Amino acid sequence: MKSLKGTKTAQNLMNVFAGESQAKNKYQFYAKIARKEGYAQIGDIFDETAHNEEMHGKIFFRYLLNDFTGEDLQVTGSYGVGMGTTLENLKTAAKGEDEEDTLYLKFAAEAREEGFEEIAASFTHIHGIEAHHRDRFLRLAKNIEEGIVFKRPEVHEWICTVCGYVHVGEEAPQVCPACKHPQGYYELRAENF
């Protein structure tokens, strides 16, 4: 690959490395809040997304290693500060993912213009992942707003993520009859394999 020195793409890579790194940390904070509020599955989703963001940061950072190892690069960007309820955090996270989604398409075009096809492809692929993250956060926020995280208008299978007990009904039990963990450890049973 040709040198990244003096390119927009190098600056974009450093900026998104910083952005992905701060997103990872925020999502880990948000996961703890979700669990504290009784939303274990949402906590798990925040943790999973944090891991995804870490991997995105690693992908972008690796491109910089050949030309910039041992150097300091400036980061330009703005990153939201704040933690709220799980609902607020989901909306904040969705907004951040939407911004990344839009930005990564722009950065892909700039990388392509500068002749970095492999980097452009990485931005394009990760843009699709960020769109999925945004949509998932918005669905989870809607579930909280509509009061359907643990209750649905039709019968479903609900599984306790602690012991595996399966309850069939419109609503997850307040307390698991098998292991006595609270409702927050239930999720809709979905076996997609």
What does this structure look like?
The chain has 193 residues and is mainly alpha-helical. It folds into two domains: 8-145, Ferritin (Up-down Bundle), CATH 1.20.1260; 151-188, Rubrerythrin, domain 2, CATH 2.20.28.10. The protein is 60% helix and 10% strand. It has four helices and three strands, in the order H-H-H-H-E-E-E. The protein has helices at residues 8-36, 40-68, 86-113, 117-145; strands at residues 151-160, 166-171, 186-188. It has a three-stranded antiparallel beta sheet with strand order 2-1-3, with no helix packed on it. A hairpin with a 5-residue loop joins strand 1 (151-160) and strand 2 (166-171). The longest helix is centred in the N-terminal third of the chain and has 29 residues, at 8-36. The chain is elongated and about 60 Å long. The two termini are 39 Å apart. The mean pLDDT is 94.
Summarize the structure.
It is an enzyme of class 1 (oxidoreductase). With 193 residues, this protein is mainly α. 60% of the residues lie in helices and 10% in strands.
**Separation of termini?**
39 Å
Outline the biggest β-sheet.
3 strands, antiparallel
- Average pLDDT confidence is 94
CATH topology of the largest domain: Ferritin
What's the shape? elongated
Q: What is the CATH homologous superfamily assignment of the largest domain? A: Ferritin, core subunit, four-helix bundle
Strand order of the main beta sheet, please? 2-1-3
How many domains? The number is 2
The tally of strands reads 3
Order of helices and strands: HHHHEEE
Unreliable residue runs: none
Please, how many helices?
Answer: 4
Write the CATH architecture name of the largest domain: Up-down Bundle
Beta-strand share of residues:
5-15%
Structural class: mainly alpha
Quaternary: single chain
